[in-house]
Task: structure prediction
Amino acid sequence: MDVSVILPVVNETFSLRKTIEIINNTSSSFVKEYIIVICKFTTKDSIAEINDLKKDFPGLIKVHNQIKPYLGGALQEAFQIAVASHIILMASDLETDPWLVEKLIQEELNFEYGIVTASRWIRGGSFKGYSKMKLILNWIFQKMISLLYLSKLTDMTYAFRIMPTKVMQSICWEELRHPFLLETLIKPIRLKIPVKEIPAIWEARIEGDSQNTFLRTFSYLKIAVKARFQSIQSITKD
Ligand SMILES: Nc1nc2c(ncn2[C@@H]2O[C@H](COP(=O)(O)OP(=O)(O)OP(=O)(O)O)[C@@H](O)[C@H]2O)c(=O)[nH]1
Ligand SMILES: [Mg+2]
Result:
C-alpha cells in the first residue's frame, strides 16, 4: 500500500509546509506523492512556498493547476491523476491534523478495500474554536444525513480520509464546491464500500480564510438526497 496525499491550496504557506513536514516525519515510507492543487486564486506567497517545498522534497511534490473551478473541481482532478493505491483527502490549513495521517494509514492497512475517515463527533474527537451555533447545526446535519443513509457514521462532512484510489476513480462526481466533501463519502457508501471512523480533534485555522460560506451548508442536502436515491449504475463510470 502507498498513498497520494492531496493538498488543495489557496492561501496557506507555513500551514502547508507544516502539514507536509509532519507527514514526512511520521509516514514517509508510505507516501508516493503529495498532489498540491492550485487555482487562479492561489496567492503568490503560497506559490513561493510550494516552490521551496519542491526543492526540499525532490520528486515527491506534484503540482496540479486545476481546470475545473472550486474545491470540488480541484479534488476531482487530483483523484484522476493520483498514482498510489490509496488517496489521503485532507486540507493544507491544519484543520486536518497531519499527526493523524499515520493512524489513518495504519488503520487502512487492515481495511484496504474500505475507507477510514476521521470524526470529530465520536469519543476522543472534538472541535476547538468552532462557534456554538455552527456546532449545533453541524450536529443536526450529521444526524439528518446518517438517518437518510441509515448509517452509524457520526461525521460525514469532515473530509479527512484515506480511500482506495481505484474506487474514487470509478465514480461519476458532480459537485464542484464544498458539498463535494460529502459526496466523496456518500457515493462510496451507496457502492457498499465499508467505512470506519477514528477520532480527530478539529482546530480552527490560524492562517488564511476558509473558502466555504456557512449558507452553503444547506446545499450539502441537495447532493445528500440525490446520491441517496440515484441508481448504482449512474454512480459509477463503468
Ligand atoms: N486548489 C483549491 N484549493 C481550495 C479551493 N477552495 C478551498 N481550497 C483549499 O481546501 C482546503 C479546505 O478549504 P476551506 O475553505 O478551508 O474549507 P473547510 O475547511 O472545509 O471549511 P470551513 O469549515 O469553513 O473552514 C484549504 O486548504 C483551502 O485552501 C479551491 O477552489 N481550489
Ligand atoms: Mg478550512
Notes: The mean pLDDT is 96. The longest strand covers residues 31-38. Strands lie at 3-8, 31-38, 61-65, 86-89, 115-119, 126-128, 161-164, 195-199, 201-203.
